């Protein structure tokens, strides 16, 4: 589904990714772990097409298409979802407005008919109920006044509505208490653990991986994947840290 070959990227002329190679197949969940400054968020933003992240080398194939040749909205329409460590607030725009426009924009990009207001509300309510997000939260401005846990639940609702093929989740566990972590983990499993989908889960800690069991764990250090393994690698990192691996 996703094949990254020798990817180099920089920010403001500073190289961050320095020859990263990684492949994800459909049906797989991959966790990326590593110390601060390793390039984890840069990888997520580069794949998502965020402005300011310049690719200077390498290739990224997404379901047979050149991901790097697509605009951000084209990547989204092709099935890529990017979850942020710190979801942004959008004053004056309700969650219902935002999510309906996002979904229908992607449907139009794929040549599918837009959902009516009633059709969309049925989808939105189903996803909100599954994540324990109160219905009145859908009427509020996007993330304005939301707690950290509410923002992450709202983002999972968005992911459920969009129903992507590949989810890149950048430190989704950041700022979550135990209960919210369980809800978000269950949401990821419910939405994305399917034979035709894949997840790239970026995290500092093992704790999210107690709920979302990865098939593979990779250590990112100084812009490269320096070690890969199974779920046991995350437990080793939790015990021993990154110092020896990242050296």
From TrEMBL:
Keyword Transit peptide on entry: no
One Pfam family matching this protein: ABC_tran
Keyword check for Iron-sulfur: no
Annotated GO MF terms: ATP binding; ATP hydrolysis activity
Every ABC transporter domain range: 2-247
Keywords of this entry: ATP-binding, Nucleotide-binding
CDD domains per the UniProt record, alphabetical: ABC_FeS_Assembly (cd03217)
Top-level taxon of origin: Bacteria
Family: Belongs to the ABC transporter superfamily. Ycf16 family.
NCBIfam families listed in its UniProt record: sufC
The protein's name: Transporter
Gene source species: Sphingomonas sanxanigenens DSM 19645 = NX02
Lineage, highest ranks first: Bacteria, Pseudomonadati, Pseudomonadota, Alphaproteobacteria, Sphingomonadales
